[in-house]
């Protein structure tokens, strides 16, 4: 897309590192960036320093600062290692730098970085904010950090030209709390090719249908302690694989490691990507997401796109996604989670029932091309007012 005979320029601020699977925000930012690039936009992503970036994975262009990956410019922004201040300091430096980038739109992602969305408005730059979830509700944040996240939420509601939310629940929340109309644009998904169990067999001894899995950051609000406690009480030969990194919740990660060590059927896989992840999602017996708090889980969309039988907690952010195409248990209820897991383990026909239409359902409901088109409308100020 061109504006005044030059490419339309977009800055993405709020993620940790792209391309990566640090979290759902990173997946969303990279999907938007690469698809906008294909439509003629110039997109620049402001990565945070200190997030395992291998410089050899990026290109350099003489005379142009920053790094490049697949035609998208990556700018490294300094911040501190303190998890509670990381996003705030990063967003300040990223936003100040972006003021001089001749951008047509600055797109902020998540509540913390939205603290700075007022600043570009002073310079007449259009601002779009995506609220991926109510981050201040997450257990890992202390009082100060939670207050800052709520302040970022308020800044987005007051100062962003357009606000995107990922669930109808969030749309209702912004209207009730701030009187702010938002745009419900959920994440997208692309139907993947299934992968036979090869690497996961060599690495962990896993075979098709031989394990239950989850994929998420290992933080308290994901409810992994419920899953471990429920699984420990079930006599089964299947294994339980937890895939994901610890984020900033180091104490909780140590707690999960201790719980996992008590059951030799549990595998802590760490951060998985590429072929390994595709194999895991292609061959699981059940995909579980026991979260207390979610935005819109990319992992859940991916699991269903692979045709998995999914088991989720009854929070609206998950049930809105799966509708009646997945098993559901009461949030935070270990006994109910155990019962639902046992039902699925004892009744392969029930698992087959949920698998049968999962991929068709989710891939028809959520589409990245639609997400990008609707986001473009917000960039241009041509949003459908009926949304």
Your description of this structure?
α7 packs parallel to α8. Strands 5-6-7-4-3-8-9-10-11 form a nine-stranded mixed β-sheet, sandwiched between helices. Helix content is 41%, strand content 19%. The chain has 387 residues and is α/β, with parallel strands linked by helices. The mean pLDDT is 91. The longest helix has 18 residues.
Per-chain topology:
Layout: E1 2-3, E2 6-7, E3 9-13, H1 24-38, E4 42-48, E5 59-61, E6 64-69, E7 72-77, H2 83-98, E8 105-109, H3 118-122, E9 126-131, H4 143-159, E10 162-165, H5 168-178, E11 183-184, H6 199-204, E12 211-215, H7 224-232, E13 239-243, H8 250-261, E14 266-270, H9 274-283, E15 286-289, H10 298-305, E16 310-313, H11 316-322, E17 327-329, H12 334-346, H13 348-365, H14 368-380
Parallel strand pairs: 3-4, 3-8, 4-7, 8-9, 9-10, 10-11, 12-13, 12-15, 13-14, 15-16, 16-17
Antiparallel strand pairs: 1-2, 5-6, 6-7
Helix pairs in contact: 1-14, 7-8, 7-12, 12-13
Q: Tell me the radius of gyration.
A: 21 Å
Span between termini: 23 Å
Low-confidence stretches are none
Spatial arrangement of strands, main beta sheet: 5-6-7-4-3-8-9-10-11
Residues in helices, as a percent range = 40-55%
Strand content: 15-25%
Structure class? alpha/beta
- Main sheet record: 9 strands, mixed
Average pLDDT, all residues? 91
Oligomer: single chain
How many distinct beta strands? 17
- DSSP summary: helix tally: 14
Shape: globular
């Amino acid at each position: 897309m061109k504006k005044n005979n030059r490419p339309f320029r977009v800055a993405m601020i709020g993620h940790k590192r792209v391309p990566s699977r640090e979290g759902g925000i990173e997946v969303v930012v990279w999907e938007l960036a690469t698809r906008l690039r294909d439509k003629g936009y110039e997109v620049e992503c402001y990565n945070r320093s200190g997030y395992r970036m291998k410089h050899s994975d990026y290109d350099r262009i003489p005379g142009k600062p920053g790094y490049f990956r697949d035609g998208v410019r990556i700018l490294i922004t300094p911040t501190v290692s303190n998890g509670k201040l990381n996003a705030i300091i990063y967003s300040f430096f990223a936003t100040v730098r972006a003021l001089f980038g001749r951008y047509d739109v600055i797109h902020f992602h998540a509540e913390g970085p939205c603290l700075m969305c007022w600043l570009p408005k002073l310079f007449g730059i259009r601002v779009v904010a995506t609220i991926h979830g109510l981050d201040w509700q997450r257990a890992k944040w202390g009082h100060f950090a939670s207050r800052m996240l709520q302040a970022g939420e308020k800044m987005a509601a007051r100062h962003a030209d357009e606000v995107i939310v990922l669930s109808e629940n969030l749309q209702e929340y912004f209207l009730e709390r701030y009187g702010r109309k938002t745009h419900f644009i959920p994440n997208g998904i692309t139907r993947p090719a299934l992968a036979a169990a090869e690497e996961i067999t060599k690495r962990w001894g896993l075979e098709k249908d031989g394990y239950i899995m989850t994929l998420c950051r290992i933080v308290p609000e994901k409810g992994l302690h419920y899953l471990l406690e429920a699984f420990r009480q079930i006599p089964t030969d299947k294994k339980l694989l937890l895939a994901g990194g610890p984020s900033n919740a180091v104490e909780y990660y140590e707690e999960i490691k201790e719980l996992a060590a008590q059951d030799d059927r549990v595998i802590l896989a760490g951060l998985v990507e590429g072929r390994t992840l595709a194999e895991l999602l292609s061959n699981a017996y059940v995909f579980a997401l026991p979260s207390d708090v979610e935005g819109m889980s990319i992992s859940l969309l991916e699991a269903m796109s692979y045709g998995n039988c999914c088991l989720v907690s009854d929070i609206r952010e998950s049930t809105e996604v799966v509708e009646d195409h997945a098993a559901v248990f009461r949030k935070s209820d270990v006994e109910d989670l155990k019962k639902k897991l046992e039902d699925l383990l004892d009744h392969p026909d029930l698992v087959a029932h949920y698998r049968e239409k999962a991929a068709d359902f989710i891939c028809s409901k959520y589409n990245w091309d639609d997400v990008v088109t609707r986001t473009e409308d917000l960039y241009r100020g041509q949003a459908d007012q009926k949304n």
